[in-house]
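does this look right to u?? adenosine-5'-diphosphate version
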Amino acid sequence: MTLLDKPVQFLKGVGPRRAEALARMRILCARDLLYHVPRRYDDASTITPLELAQVGMDVTAVGEVRSKGVVPTRSGLRIFQAVIQDDTGIITCAWPGQPWVERGMRVGDRILVTGPVRFFHGRQIQPREHTLLARASDGASPPDSAGRIFAIYPASDELPQWIFRRVFSQNLDWLIRQVRAEEYLPAAVRRDLMELPDALETLHRPRSLAEVDDARRRLAYDELFFLQLLQARERYRATRERPGIAFRRTNELIRALHGRLPFQLTGAQIAALRDIYADMTSARRMSRMLQGDVGSGKTLVALFAMLLAVEGGYQAAMMAPTEILAEQHAQRIGELGLDVALLMGSMTGARRKAALARIADGDATLVVGTHALIQEGVDFRALGLVVVDEQHRFGVRQRMVLAERDPAPDVLVMSATPIPRSLAMALHGHLDISVIDELPPGRRPVTTRLVGPDERGQVFREVGERLDRGQQAYVVYPVIEESSKTDLRAAETEFERLRREDFAGREVALLHGRLPGDERDAIMRAFLAGRVHVLVATTVIEVGIDVPNATAMVIENAERFGLSQLHQLRGRIGRGDQGGVCFVISDGRDGANDRLQAFARTTDGFQIAAEDLRIRGQGDLFGAEQHGHRTELRFADILTHGDLIAPARDRARALVDADPLLTADENALVRFLLERRYGDRLELFGLG
Ligand code: ADP
Ligand code: MG
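got this back:
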């Protein structure tokens, strides 16, 4: 405990009632308050002296309220007016139709207003936004950072701006003195990053806006470092706490598979295999992610890894997120002349028993299945490697179950969601990462065509021509059912229409997430077998299977999908050698055109992911579950601070490798701060 853990209630000017309101903003202790930094700044250069506010301008101005009142008009509209004054002059501010503004304002208050200057019995500002900077007769109010920069705090109705400003004016110096004891970075490591107390003081009281970026950068580093520390712990538990297997590589099976392949591995596949073989032959457990676009040849790389395990006398298992995918993996491995056992939840009776027996006595060396593989009642004789397909379907708890199996198999997870390297490192610091950033040669890229809704008829005619040639197609909709709230096209309605009109006489099927799992499986199987020609679907096909004969896709209301989602959808076609076409239908609403054009221009998933990150920001990615909890990065922005991730990760890993439980004296402060940030989840990482 330090003084910064003191409940916020005991700070000057707070008290029990405000403390309750602060708690609703998740500000509980003094430290929370210190980290409640302004959300934006208005600097003097953007503030217009009242004398210079001319009709027609849009201004931000600051003044003291001289008089105020609600003025009724003949039309019944009530207008709140306040006359404000600064060193240069006075002006009226008017809030038509908002008489209630009066309640929050007193004569003598200092306010900041932003809005247009209009003419109405003289010059008048009509504020879009106003902020109470200081309460009337509030002697404690400070000059605004040398009077030049206005810091605007995130505030609420119960806790308006001026309260934050006053509370900070009374407590900031004390808070900054306390936080000096929490500088955990030695100068040699910190290098050009700001010192922690300086950074926090700068954010509350900047001398210039330029400094604010440097201050944020320091706090961004802290966020990334502690996130990496948690991930370094997960990695330590998974790979260092129990002995791994040093696989013996005989090359017998590996060479045989090389001999049977009708093609050469790509350079990126070879590089990934080099990483994997090095991990597997070392005595440490492997915990690696293999990242690569759909079709980049990850499964084949995984298969080589599995063969290395088998050569060394172990079994290897591959887990897929759905039964169809598992079947498909098994079939493809079988086609390469290898003996593979399949185990899935839906298997029952004698088949299941036989599979379990082969797995238990070690007769089955290559095993493919669903999550059922690592669950109750499945005993392997000697499981040496687990390959996890589509890792994002797994949560931290499931990963931990896998990590804690005894004896401990090596783990390789595969992800078909390409993301920029810095982001991968930030999200998956617990894993080592290999990237396949190259597609096998000779692929015919899918052509993408952006079309408007009025060209829909023509699009379906072109799709029809492909069906005539014996090919298949997907038509994707953003929603299942029509709704009165939107005019989005819906899969159910359009399915009925397509089978009656555009695709009359063809087999059309409907697939969406509300169908029971076995029905979905049956429909996918029929599509795979060619019995269904057109599959009308929602995004459930994102992580679908390979249907090489499906060469066309139509995506309706494309503006509703994220770029990466579109990319995953498009990845379903063009798997064969006929070349594919993807029609992207959108009326270009919501400024979607730039996005969709970017999508149509490239088929490089990494480029698309980078663009997606730039457009949508990292919120979705980090807002999603991380480590079984929400992880919010308030200061770190992957695009701006990407260069900080590798140093943060390296330092976190070095610390944990040298002092796994962070019990050494010199790590006491880091450990304390880690508890402050992630106290609720330390148990999961063996630090509780
Ligand atoms: P991913 O799992 O990354 O989506 P796959 O492993 O399924 O990709 O590979 C897609 C297809 O490409 C498969 O048919 C596979 O046999 C083939 N393939 C894999 N590597 C190569 C290569 N180096 N050259 C040519 N084809 C390859
Ligand atoms: Mg090993």
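Confidence is low (pLDDT under 50) at residues 142-146, 625-629. idk if thats expected tbh
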